[in-house]
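User: I'm putting together a teaching handout on how multi-component assemblies are represented. Below are the sequence lines for each component of a complex, exactly as they appear in our records. Could you produce the 3D structure of the whole assembly as structure tokens, so the students can see both representations side by side? Please keep the chain order the same as the input.
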Amino acid sequence: MRWFAFFSLILVQCSLSAAHSGEEYHEELKLRPLPDGKLAARFAFTTLLKGAIPRAPTNLTVNDESQHYTLFPLAMGQLLREYAITELHLTLNAGKWDYDRWGYPEEPGVGSGAELWTWMGDGAPTSIDERWKAIQNAHAGLFCASLGSMDTQRTTSPTRAFPPTGDLPRLPAPHVHRLRHATLPAEHVCTENLTPFLKLLPCPAHAGIAALLAPHKVFDADWHGLGVHVRWRAGKGVELVMTVQAVFDPVRMSAERKRDWSFHSVFDRTIPRSCPVATTSLIHVELPPPGDGSYTLNPAPSTANQAVATFSISKDLPELDVTMKWGEESRFAYPLDASSTPLSDFSVQRTLKGSSQTHGQLSIVIRNNRPTELSVLYLETMPWHVEFYLHTLRITGPDGQQCNDLFSNMTYTPPVPHAQPAMLQAMLTLPPLTTLRLTMDARKSFLRYTEHPPDAQRGWDLPPAVFVTQSASGGASKRVYTPALLVDLATPDFSMPYNVIIMSCTLIALIFGSLFNILTRRFVVVKVDGNVPKVQ
Amino acid sequence: MAFELAFAVLLRLVLVLSPLRRLLKDDSQLSSPLTSYSRLREGIYLFREGINPYSGGTFRHSPLFLALFSTVIPDSEAFAAILWACVDVLGAWALVRIWRARGRVGTSKRDSLIAALYLLNPYIFLPSLSLSTSTFDTTLQLVSLMFAAQGQASASLLTLAFTAHLSLPSLLLLPPTVLLLLADPYSHLASPRPFNGKISKGLPLFAEFSAYFCSLVLASTVVSDGSGWIINSWGAGLLLPDLTPNPGLWWYFFTEMFDHFRPFFLMIFSVHLVIYVAPLCIKFQHDPLYAAFLLLGVLGIFKPYPTLSDPGLFLSLISLFPETYPHLRYPIVTTLLHLHAFLLLPLFHHLWIATGTGNANFFYASTLVFGIANGGALLDCVWAGLRVAMGEEREGYVIVQE
Amino acid sequence: MSDAVEPRESPLKDPSGLFFEQPRTRRTIVTSYWIVVLLALPLWWSTTSIERLSLPVSRVHSTGLKQLHFPLQVEFDHNASSLSFEALEKETRARFSSLQRQSEGRLDYLDLRFVAIESTAGHPAATGAYGVSIEPSLDRATVRDRHLSVPVNEGATHIPFTLPDRLVSLLSPYTSRHPPGRFEHLVAKYAPRYRLAFTMLNEDAAGGRPVVGWDVQEAISRHLSPILDQVADLHNFTIESQVQFHSPLAFAPYEIKSDNEEIHGLTQEDLKVFVNSAEWTLSSSVSNDPVLHFILFIPSVPHTPLRILDNDHNPTSSNAFILPQWGGIVLLNLPPDTSSPPHLSEGDLAHTFSIFRTQLLKLLGVSDLPAGVEPADTHLPLTKWQLDTLYRQRAIENAHSSQETLQSIIKLVDQISNMPVGEGVRGDIQNALTALNMVYTVGWQSPIQALRHSSEALTHASRAFFNPGMLALLYFPAEHKYAVYTPLFAPVAVPLVVTALRELSAWRKSRRVATETKT
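Assistant: Of course. Below is the structure of the complete assembly, with chains in the same order as your input.
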């Protein structure tokens, strides 16, 4: 009897056994002083579920095994397993990332607004689009962001520009993984998104690096954004990275216009205690280049080399407040030649020209800042309101000559009215140190009365274009986002539905009735004699 | 007449290659989503790149245009200008031939007048300048009527099949064309008789037309690799996916219509087009050419995606029926209304779309005026066509209806 | 109408002589208009109709009148006993009827029947029947499956008093060792699948003495899995667990001094607001299944020890409480002396999980065994007798709830004439009715069957009621329809109808004239 009980206990334990073999949590903060006096900060909170494998979509019909987490947030775990998601990226950003002045961000997803893209395998009883809809709603509930309007009119599948950043587990043939991507450029991030975001962390408010995230200061930054990234690394497990990026302006916030910063001045907080469950808790400060004036860094870092100083937060650390002062500067002098030494490989400007409400012209000006040839992948997702005329695509070089041959390898999905956006992916070859102008005519559509949003006069937001550099040497490819555009579409008169019905129907009825009468009434001859017409 | 035609061609070429073309390109009164030249170029470009042009909503032309422009006709604006001018001239020539067949006359001075009334009619002239494919529609319609007036059944039905294929509402002209083939094109308005042709001879004509039509459908399906073109080009007139403003009555009505009633009213407007065919053919069975003329007027007002060339065709065809002129009751009013609408339509369109100081209601009001003008012209022509049968005006007597 | 005018006097011809003025032509034209109108009518119907399928209203009403009765057969084996069977039966019936009266009709579905049998083996002769026997060899009362065995040497005088009580308590649902009637409010609403969410909350892990892990899976498999397996006929369970490291309380606990020790306490009022939903991330499921939360709360160092206070602000001995229909909470005060291990092993969790087990049983509605009675088999802590009682009660509740849902659907569809009723809704209602019929026809035979069918009926009825199509109302007052239809159809219909009537009367008149002239 006891053996039986013992045996059954083993069996039960095996059936309830964990899907993963351990969890690890790392915290990291990277601070980078920028040449124009700003401070770029990036928080990364990484949780690793060792040995875990994403749920196979074909297993969605059977009950899932129990989920037991210590450090990984249960809400995210439930979401990932409920819809069998392999890779997920959600970013909520506000502001415009200036690639020329600030270089490239640590996390590439800096398009303004909300951006959500996932790689999911098919083969589940529900279709990928149904799961995609459910994922949007689940994230909308989890992060208090209205992501539910990412319907089919905004969803595309740009597989060349958004390849999976992790590994994809092999699915039984013929199932494959598919990409779903959607952007809401008008969705702004605010405190109500940060609060549930922080609640997913093991050590949110009073311990660890997350203690620095004060909503007042983070949302005062020139650029700020939240990110949630889930991916699977074969051999390691499922990795969840939650990031907060912000570009602060110490010069603006200081009274003397100095670029000295400290945790207290930038975040209005300090790190009171370490997080007891973090395996590593590091703060990296990138040191300014040697010619940039002398500075002091307090307290002394744990390790430092020429480029980066690292602070490691240990368990018995008292309150930590890192400060960096440029003692000899009385006032920060903005660099005068900022625009001639851009930090990015290429600069992009995208505008929609034209004052008419039926036609416009999309104009992209790209400048290659490097002395070598660059090839970039250009992704343009356009809602169906603005239709391109692809045959009017022209690329003009700096002397005005046509070089349409720099545009190659195009994939294009035409837009379907009321249903599907247009997606254009093409390779652009940028000759060294040249400026190219790409123009394309566009046509603006007329929407139905019920399709206009309540604030119809504001216009519609167009999602940012994405440029992905392809490095021939196999290095990391960088993703560059242009700012979002606003397009003004013609509106009907919203107060007039019944009036229009009445007037148009009256005209039609008038003509119909008159024609009917002429065709069916009798002709009579009337003698007009004197004052009284007599019928003859 | 040859001199006038050459002059017209030259004038058109000069104007197309001038900056006027830039101004008129894609003007929404001159070209609709079904006839716009830019969309045609876009469709050809996508076709050449290997993307199905009917997978999106930009290209709504028939696959026959695709086949024509991507294989036979080279892709340059100058050539297109010449082609459009020639097509217009062909239309004018067909109109003159119809006049000659109807009046049983040969070459006369009136030919130039008729050709000028067609070529210099701004409603015909301006869409042709903007390279709208509605020029093809009107010319093919006129050629079909010409063959029917000359008694050549197969040619007439073939061209009518082409016309109906390019613009589906033209299918409604099949009954009067068959009646015209079975009868004669001469003017019988003054002495009407019941239809003296044999109806049974009409059935083989219907069958022949169906054969031509089906083979065109088959050819289009082969060209475009599938039947998606049906929803894009014919379905556009039935489902109205594109709400670009045009001089017709449909677009604003369906912009403001509630979603629940949309399918119902789409059905009503389509049935409304059909309801005029039988009464007009029955009432004017003595003169089927006049019935075709009136039906073209009806189409010009109530078509789903009209351009200015559809009422323009109706107005130019009035020149074929001089016997009705004395009996028109209010031609001045109609002319002035047309002038009024012709000036207001582009003005209000510009105010609404380009400068933003106007409202959609301004342009809608001008389309209503345009509709009244066309409706007035149609009603007047119907009355005049019936009144001719009762003789000349006579002092002391009037003819009314009761 | 008018005589022919002499051609000499005027060139105007008589219009009525023209062929297109003939009545026949006119009638053909009017008929052609009307043919097109009539052909378009079915299209009108198909483009504007709302899908409203007919629902089986009569079946729903007739099902609503049915009642379910479970016959309970108690077999008394009076072999080796000197007790009077009739006295026992009379006493038990009296107590049972008084309990039914107290419950105001909620227990009327039970029909008690007593049978005396002679059986040596002690097993019930009929399936599903409950056996009572008096065994001399036992030392305390036990229940095995559906058989209550009472020891004879409890005193011959005790039995007539305690045995009826025990029987009544075993046969009626929702009994516990608390005052009757209080237990029902704790029990969670029925659902076919529950999520059991185990959460360990550190009030402030960074403040010192964090507990970073717990052997929750082993504890669940040791303490809870046997229960969950036994209740598997009733519910399916999904189990999940998480640990939170920073879960502050929304209020400051009450401070009292007791035995020279500072104790922090939770008053009875604080217990109601203990769960700080704003700051704690408890499990919220992505599906519609209800969640039962089980929380192990570890107070922070400044708030240790945390006790529950009674109404007089004295610390009680218990450190756990249930929130009705939500879950249970256990407070764990770590000993202050040693640096406690940051990981709670299975042994440390034994006490906590046995409390969780009790709380889970209460939340599921499993009645306790009466005082003095124990299960015969320690490895199967729930006897079939207890489970049967629960099955019956849940079956009745589900059937009643399904009936109510179906009737409210019918009433809703009836009142709102613009509500679409799709195929999904009708299919679900029909499936619910089929399942309810099964409950009433075969349910009385076995509680498990009744439960299965009634649970199926409840699922279908809920799905029909919450179908998204049922919530989308089409708000079309009659004026709106008139405003949309009238501008076009009124002016168009007037000439059509008037001319048709005129032609019809003229035709009839001419026919009459023709027949008159013939005769």
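A couple of points students might notice: Chain C has a mean pLDDT of 81. The interface with chain B takes residues 10-13, 15, 18-20, 25, 28-29, 32-33, 35-37, 40, 43-44, 47-48, 474, 476, 484, 488 of chain C (CB under 8 Å).
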